[in-house]
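Write out this protein's structure.
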Amino acid sequence: MSLHSLRSLTRRVIPALLVAQAAFLPLQSAAAAEHVAQPCRSSAECGSVIVAPVSQAAPDDGDCTSPEPVVCLIRSKTPAEREVARDQRMHYHDLLEEMERAECAMRAEGRSEEDIARTLVQMRNDAKDVVRAGMTPEQVAELEARNEKKYGNPLGPTADQLYLKYGSWEKVTEAAKRSSAAVDHELGLEFRHCSCDVLQAA
């Protein structure tokens, strides 16, 4: 496939995938969160892990059985488009891993939960090149206008707005690092949280 074709695919599929993840996901149940957040034991098990091949099924434009709109979008794409989407999703996971590494360093310094939460939210909002990969200038302008109207900030919700939503700085930190398991699964991926020991040794 030519570079031009790949860029064309990226422009079509990636914006919807990543914009859907730009807003922080709802908190999971306590049991589910405990299961997802189990730290990995080695660097090979941490971060973005490919656990299955990308589906080679033909695009499915019929009724979607998933409650997750982004999953339905992925299923409507070609196998080549899904490969591009997975690559971009892995870049997003790299950002989450960097955020976890920053959190570990701040905890080692004895920083407060508020400081940690504010830093991670800022890291996520500042990562425009990851969150908006493949978007056209028009799509970026539309996203920024929507964020400005909803949050008063073109980059997305502020730490203070998220604190009002979740009620604690610990939950703001959790939300900032979350990845949709349904979207990851559809692309044959898992994001596995790492212990601070593993991250600092990497």
